[in-house]
Design brief:
Length: 381
């Protein structure tokens, strides 16, 4: 049993105690004796974030490109012509190390579930949940056999997840229409990016994964989610560091500045909406749900949802994945002194020190052996 004491929840007027046992939330309104207890002061507990689009093995790349492109195809042609050295340097790192960093990139920001787009990884006991239940099809433009994969009868009950409409030109809209035309088996399709997706075709898809920071970096434009949100679920994604910064909270603030979703809608795109779309028992702080939680500093002058959306990695005090502590701020160390001897490493993010599960400094050292130019937002403490 683990109890989080004196924490606020979004919408709550008074602090509560939240109990966790066997990976599940067992109560949210009282305190029971026994087990490990943590005490907080002016802290907000929120569901662990769900990042609905990432490429876990592509997060050691810097952002590549210096102009706005008409489509992902134009961008792809450009970077492979102008950044071959940078691309080869990252691809020289063994995939296992790149994937491990991709998981840490998400964990350090409080992401407890990430949807990986790409080849199935079949990871053993990752530090966060990696969803691979859907069928990843890269795109209409870059995957030659996409039509056959989409119409594989053995996958008829599996969601297809595909990049489509990632552009501002006529070809991007044509790509959306071609994808729907070839969906002969009428499968559920989750469309990623969908910048060219018109409202008239929105209901043909089961969800849209919105990656606004990535879209604006590449294209100078993003999907019309202010209109599309009335016709299909909007799920939030970051994509990889090829087209965006490592920190999902910066992506969230970028999205907030667009004004295309209300604060409530943006928040839901990170928890309840994707939890429903991916059919997982998280995204809500309630009895019986998975204990995927993060605790952040509470800013008393803001509403709780404003505090949540303004979070930075430095603000995160605790990350819990399925009831297991994965990261904690040094201020909690006196209450959890066993952490130092129990498979955690001490790191520094900005001005703050954290303890994180696993040997992150060793991972950084191994990656730097293959790629001395790799830049990390954390350092060993």
């Amino acid at each position: 049993m683990l109890t989080l004491n004196n924490v606020y929840t979004i919408g709550g007027n008074a602090p509560v105690s939240i109990g966790i046992n066997k990976g599940k939330i067992v109560y949210t309104d009282r305190q029971l004796p026994g087990g490990q207890e943590l005490f907080f002061n002016e802290a907000l507990v929120i569901p662990g974030l769900i990042n609905s689009h990432d490429h876990l093995d592509f997060n050691l790349f810097p952002q590549l490109g210096y102009q706005k492109y008409s489509s992902y195809k134009a961008w792809g042609d450009h970077i492979h012509t102008h950044y071959k050295k940078e691309i080869d340097a990252v691809l020289n790192i063994p995939p296992k190390l790149r994937i491990a960093w991709g998981i840490y990139k998400n964990l350090l920001c409080g992401v407890t579930t990430v949807v990986n787009h790409g080849e199935r990884l079949n990871l053993q006991s990752p530090l966060i949940s990696v969803i691979e239940s859907g069928q990843s099809i890269h795109s209409v433009g870059f995957e030659r056999r996409w039509m056959w994969r989409l119409n594989n009868p053995l996958k008829i009950n599996t969601k297809a997840i595909i990049h489509a409409g990632e552009g501002t030109n006529a070809e991007a809209l044509a790509e959306i229409r071609q994808l729907l035309q070839w969906n002969i088996l009428k499968r559920e399709i989750v469309v990623v990016h969908g910048v060219a997706l018109p409202v008239s075709l929105a209901r043909k898809f089961s969800a849209l994964v919105w990656c606004p920071a990535s879209n604006n970096f590449l294209l100078g434009q993003t999907a019309r989610v202010s209109e599309l949100k009335h016709h299909l679920p909007i799920l939030f994604g970051t994509d990889s560091t090829l087209t965006g910064v490592w920190d999902i909270w910066q992506h969230i603030r970028h999205a907030r500045q667009t004004g295309l979703l209300t604060d409530g809608e943006l928040w839901n795109s990170l928890n309840t909406m994707p939890a429903s779309a991916w059919q997982i028992d998280t995204g809500i702080i309630a009895q019986g749900y998975d204990a995927d939680l993060i605790v952040v500093k509470r800013k008393t002058e803001d509403t709780h949802i404003q505090t949540a959306l303004a979070t930075t990695p430095e603000d995160i005090l605790l990350v819990i994945h399925k009831g297991t502590i994965r990261l904690l701020d040094e201020m909690l160390y006196p209450q959890l002194t066993y952490i130092k001897q129990d498979g955690f490493s001490k790191i520094k993010i900005g001005r703050k020190y954290k303890y994180v599960a696993g040997d992150l400094p060793l991972l950084i050292e191994k990656i730097s052996h293959y790629y001395p130019g790799a830049a990390f937002p954390v350092s060993a403490a």
